[in-house]
Amino acid sequence: MSKRQIPVVVLAGFLGSGKTTLLNQLLRFSGGNRIGVVVNDFGAIEIDAMSVAGQVGSTVSLGNGCLCCAVDGSELDAYLEKLTRPSVGLDVIVIEASGLAEPQELVRMLLGSDNPNIVYGGLVEVVDAAEFDTTRERHPEIARHLALADLVVLNKTDRVEPDELRQLRAAVGAFADGAAVVPSTYGRIDPELLFDGKPKGERFGQLSFDDLHDRDGGDEGAHLHAAYDSLSFTSDVALHPRRLLDFLDERPQGLYRIKGFVDFGAYDPRNRYTLHAVGRFLRFRPEPWPAGAERLTQLVLIGSGVDGDGLHRALSHCRDDEPQDAGLEEVMWGVLRYVDEREPEPAVE
Ligand SMILES: Nc1nc2c(ncn2[C@@H]2O[C@H](COP(=O)(O)OP(=O)(O)OP(=O)(O)O)[C@@H](O)[C@H]2O)c(=O)[nH]1
After folding, report:
1. What is the CATH number of the domain that holds 281?
2. N or C: which end of the chain has fewer CB within 10 A?
3. 197 falls in which pLDDT band (50, 70, 90)?
4. Which domain holds residue 273?
5. ipTM above 0.95, yes or no
6. How far is CA 130 from the centre of its chain?
7. What is the pTM of this model?
């Protein structure tokens, strides 16, 4: 029985920026993850190139367990309800914004949704590096979209010189209010940026992104790795709720995702807290410690242009070496503000 909430990612970007290319890439190299993709029409999704396991109405299931739905705006809610049923078993859902709704409308809808099985997974804006200046002239609203984005994929970097790319990263980053900017070619980003990957052992028999790195040889692999930084933090000393919240309040914008478990020790001995942060969005979710589980805080932080050592130091500072206010209920209040009251329904088969 799974109580996991499925992250729903909104994928936006102007005409021709590379959204469909990125989706095809994700679907093809899902690494054993079950991805649901919602588009306006099947159009350029390369369904034929991926083995199709079946089709029911406007939903196509692919041989690797991924699903692709073509829906219009009015059907979206109902489809999300269907796609997020635990029995479908998806790990992430990506909604392509174009044609369905303005990205901010979708984000608002997801944040306000009373579907207990979903959690907001971020707004990803794909930008055509070669056309950025032209796009800005023709569509000044790109500034608004970028300001809302949690992650910017600066695509088509093969079409600009390295110097220009550096300038573009800075310019786009400024519009995006410091949000993480990840360069890509043909939408090839590590899926880990969008959702929790399955542990390697569970990927057996599927082509994982690591295989893709290996297959492509050093150059492209190095390029992908340089696109973002990933840092893990583990502590067997419990974290102090207030200190952690101060850290989270001040987290740098370039820190795109934080995921993992937090041990608040004596402040809540019964529960561990799943932490899910994407862009500015933050959520804690208490769940009883599994019997026999080691009491550890384990976090993974993913970002672009962030100071890994500095983050590690700041997190170490959240450790509560000498608990003084344990038992004071109000110490947890700050954390509880970010707990979602909704409980997902039990899994049904
Ligand atoms: N050179 C280059 N071309 C790319 C890259 N990514 C995508 N393309 C090409 O750009 C074109 C548009 O890509 P799409 O993925 O269809 O873009 P889109 O954002 O889905 O476009 P719409 O659905 O029309 O909004 C296609 O011909 C892609 O092959 C890239 O990194 N470099």
Report:
1. 3.30.1220.10
2. C
3. low
4. 229-336
5. yes
6. 25
7. 0.83
